[in-house]
Amino acid sequence: MKGSLLTEGIAEPYAQALMSIAQSNNSAEQLGEEIKALNALLENSPELRGFLKNPTLDDQKKKAVLLQIIGEDASPYFINFLKLLVDKRRIFVLEEITEAYLALLRDMNQTVLAEVTSAAELSDAQKEAVENRVKEMTDAAQVELKTSVDPALIGGVIVKVGSQVLDASLKGQLRRIGLQLSSAT
To answer: For residue 64, what are the CA distances in angstroms to 30, 31, 56, 136?
Structure first.
């Protein structure tokens, strides 16, 4: 998560409450998809994040924008939850809450999150190979990949699963060779 201990302390109970509501209505997966869509919008729009976090803006405007963004077809539980966050002035921790919810959903589904950084966009076969390798490493039933591209890696990938990091990039290999050479002299 991106937040401080304070925002994480606020986010966890809200995420757990949202999960409880979703599970009691058999909509945990559907809500997870809606949250992923909202997170993608927030990630790609610093303006939207700033708008929602601005405490001086009118709550009704925030609710209207959120409803317009997620659509009227979104689950009523999610719509009401977002309105509650605005009313309780907790919308500033929306991203932390949604990330905590997705973590709970992954735990429920025995899924691990693998953050993969590669020098170039991965093909479907490469993604499948990374998923299989992560399954071997973690004994997880499923793997959720979060990919990003960093041309500075030159080639290869860096895979982060929890606190484990597997650096199979050319940049990492060159750095290790450099360290070995400097320690040998």
So the answer is: 22, 20, 16, 46
Q: Within 10 Å of residue 132's Cβ, how many Cβ atoms? A: 11
DSSP structural state of residue 122: P
Q: How far apart are the first and last CA of the chain?
A: 41
- Rounded to an integer, what is the distance from CA 146 to the centroid of its chain? 8
Closest CA to 102 of 45, 22, 179, 176: 22
How far CA 75 is from CA of 22, 32, 35, 45, in Å, comes to 10, 11, 11, 23
**What is the C-alpha to C-alpha distance for residues 84 and 75, in angstroms, rounded to an integer?**
14
Q: Measure the CA dihedral 108/111/113/119, to 10°.
A: -160
Q: What is the largest CA-CA distance in the chain?
A: 67
User: What band does 1 get if pLDDT is binned at 50, 70 and 90?
Assistant: very low
Query: Over the stretch 26-38, which tens digit does the pLDDT of each residue have?
Result: 999 999 999 999 9
Mean pLDDT throughout 91-115? 93
Residue 5 in this model has a pLDDT that exceeds 70: no
154: three-class secondary structure by DSSP: coil
